[in-house]
Amino acid sequence: MKLSELGERKLVELIRKWWKGDGRLEVGVGDDAAVLRMGEERLVLTTDVLFQHSHFPPGTSPEQMGWKAAVVNLSDLAAMGAEPLALLFSLALPSETDLRVFRRIMEGMERAARKYGAALAGGDLSENEEIAIAGFAVGRGRRILRRGGAKVGDALAVTGKLGRAAAGLYILTHSLPVRSYRELVRALLEPEARIREGQILAAEGATSAIDLSDGLAANLWQLARESGVRMVLERIPTHPLVERFAREGRLDATEFSLFGGEDYELLFTIPPDRVEEVRKKLRRVGRELSVIGRVERGRGVAREVGGRLLPVPDRGYEHFRKQPQSSSGGLA
Amino acid sequence: MKLSELGERKLVELIRKWWKGDGRLEVGVGDDAAVLRMGEERLVLTTDVLFQHSHFPPGTSPEQMGWKAAVVNLSDLAAMGAEPLALLFSLALPSETDLRVFRRIMEGMERAARKYGAALAGGDLSENEEIAIAGFAVGRGRRILRRGGAKVGDALAVTGKLGRAAAGLYILTHSLPVRSYRELVRALLEPEARIREGQILAAEGATSAIDLSDGLAANLWQLARESGVRMVLERIPTHPLVERFAREGRLDATEFSLFGGEDYELLFTIPPDRVEEVRKKLRRVGRELSVIGRVERGRGVAREVGGRLLPVPDRGYEHFRKQPQSSSGGLA
Fold first, then answer.
1. How many A/B residue pairs have CB atoms within 8 Å?
2. Interface ipTM
3. Beta strands A208-211 and A41-51: pairing type?
């Protein structure tokens, strides 16, 4: 059987079975990051690789490549509520790459590391036909957020507003003029990691979290599956600029905010009586909290529309991509 | 200017300049691994990537790919004297890869992790035209071995005997019959990481160490450069099977043991009065110690032959490769 017949999720399930757990691991294969117990500390470890052909749309600058390779890894730390410690990169480049391009990739990594407080600890250089950047992030934390902790009765919430990155990708792949939608393209090419937000959620009693890399629908499915509950979506906090872009282009805004990926906001669950406190603390770091639904007994993901529950399909944002995003995803 | 005009070593020097140090890093870019201070502990972090076209000679089995991707990273921990904690992998594969091949790669990783006591903490899966495996190893240690600690008057030594992997590569690239030289090919495809040996060296007062990945000559140059000393090579402990292979094929055995890479033995310096104690401790884990020379005031690497000092060129084992090995190497 070919890997393409199985898909990434099944492969991760197989690896979970093949690779026996290890007593030192509190969290192993299958979450945003792995957690290793080390004395009183918890180390949080993650890796994500970006390939030029599938992860860097035409027009991505070298700085943006370096920045994004750092941020997708830091975002996994954010989803666990961890504090970043260090970043390493295995960077592969064509040998005819210009030194200035190389330098700008390094600068993008450096800016992201500085912004989010990670030490650039080094890496590995090699030749390859296309640019490929494998990033590794190490963090630490006391209370760790997992995908599997959502409880029946919890509120379902997200940081920020959704859909900008997917709309930005739509603009680039359809060669639309960028003009007044520069912010959408920038959201795609220069994502942010919600590090402080993740630490607030961990400290303030969130029960589960995941970063929105595959899209709200797909990431809701992952939380529901890992927690053994049903997620009921009551509203979708689409970004106002995405609303406007969709209206002008006669497009469906929820295609971007529900099925589009790479927003890198945090999706989380939390007891309802903690919501206002968390909202206040998030506001202090300039981030909005939107309650988008609730956690119920059951399985899967449903959307409440006019008092009725409709099923939400488990599909990621490959819809907007030539290269299916589902081909890349986390084992840890 | 193109990267190919600069070469990897110059690039690493540039990165060291561009990426400012970080107070938390005891060792940053430019050693076998980075060292991060974390309370009383020292975390040791490293990454190395292997690409099918340049790192897996034809005939490499999927288990061997997984094994080697783990071992090259663990070997960097060994060179620092660290205890392995965890391994992560960013694994890229063609989508038409057979599931059995995938499983066997995972098994190779699992065997290496088990043998050297690292927890398999997860990773990332993606599609690529050829197999590429970026590994990431985390270890810890109290006393850390660096490249830059060699002192004038130290003895220069290695663990084990040299040249098998390079002779194995010669056999494969020249399509020679393997027969009685199976061990040479196996040394190339299934290298070992000298973990316990590295821990003994760190505990017993070695002053510097590096793993022999690029070849004895190139790695001696790196130690000399980082320590600001001259390395004088008095003898080369070529493996007896390599001697025999070279004799039969009318080849120069030192081409394999001095300029061939991937032996993954440890090259280290140590005060002469510590040698016998270390030799005894290494013997207990089944490893030989060979004193191969001495550390002098000066620069570079010289070979003492018949009482005269001859210069040793700074070249790695690209000599035996179509794809120069110098295209891949450590930032950390």
1. 263
2. 0.91
3. unpaired
